[in-house]
Amino acid sequence: RKEVEQDPGPFNVPEGATVAFNCTYSNSASQSFFWYRQDCRKEPKLLMSVYSSGNEDGRFTAQLNRASQYISLLIRDSKLSDSATYLCVVNKDAGNNRKLIWGLGTSLAVNP
Amino acid sequence: EPEVTQTPSHQVTQMGQEVILRCVPISNHLYFYWYRQILGQKVEFLVSFYNNEISEKSEIFDDQFSVERPDGSNFTLKIRSTKLEDSAMYFCASRGDFQETQYFGPGTRLLVL
Predict the structure, then answer these.
(1) B104 at A interface, C-beta within 8 A
(2) Does A96 touch chain B (CB under 8 A)?
(3) What is the pLDDT of residues B34-59, one digit of tens each?
(4) Tens digit of pLDDT per residue, chain A (112 long)?
(5) Does any CB of chain B come closer than 8 Å to the CB of residue A87?
(6) Which of residues 61-100 of B touch A (CB under 8 A)?
């Protein structure tokens, strides 16, 4: 089983749509969880951290289910500028090292 | 806003040549990382560095790779004898103490011919 698994997509949605991405991770000892966004040929940029209680940042909502080892990202009222690859990222290191383990990413295209 | 910088943005080299990729992490950060991303593939951890030594390295980070923080501001990745399969985007990241977030530089695109 892959350490971090995502549906690669692509997801093609019209502007204004709601879209949800899912991610599963294999290591139950994983400590922290993130969604990064990556535009074509650019560096990954942190979109949001993911907490067990769920967290929301504007149109973006992230959820974590530790029992199922499952992470989700919901984007509401999608904009053209949301078109990117969304990377599910897990840190399984409880110490100071904090190396990140990455999913392959889910590609989103928002169409006018 | 402080940011991680990397040079060069692009590097083309011949197989077998040495390359040095440079990074300037955010100034008060203590933890430094190199990741790579082969075109069309996922981002992969290479190495982490703290307190002037490697804290962890992946299987990819073999004897051909080395890292150094030569002067307190730069953080370099050296590939001694490049192979075709080293062609990738190399990202440097840094993190402050007691922080979760790693901040990424814009990357160096390495092409080995």
Answers:
(1) yes
(2) yes
(3) 999 999 999 999 999 998 999 999 99
(4) 789 999 888 999 999 999 999 999 998 888 889 999 999 989 999 999 998 888 999 999 999 999 999 999 999 999 999 999 999 999 877 667 788 999 999 999 999 9
(5) yes
(6) 89, 91, 95, 100
Residue B106: count other Cβ atoms within 10 Å of its Cβ: 17
Residue given tokens 């971090």 in the structure block:
A4
Strand, coil or helix: A25: strand
- Number of CB atoms found within 10 A of residue B49's CB: 23
Closest CA to B22 of B105, B82, B88: B105
Q: B21 pairs with which residues across the strands?
A: B77
The Cα A5–Cα A37 span in angstroms is 16
A8, A104 contact by CB (below 8 A):
yes
Q: A-B interface: how many C-beta pairs under 8 angstroms?
A: 54
* Contact flag A100-B106 (C-beta cutoff 8 Å): no
Residues for chain A: how many in total?
A: 112
Classify residue B18 by burial, with Cβ atoms within 10 Å: 0-12, 13-18, 19+.
exposed
Q: pLDDT tens for chain B, 113 residues: list them.
A: 779 999 999 999 999 999 999 999 999 899 999 999 999 999 999 999 998 999 999 999 999 999 999 887 899 999 999 999 999 999 999 999 888 889 999 999 999 99
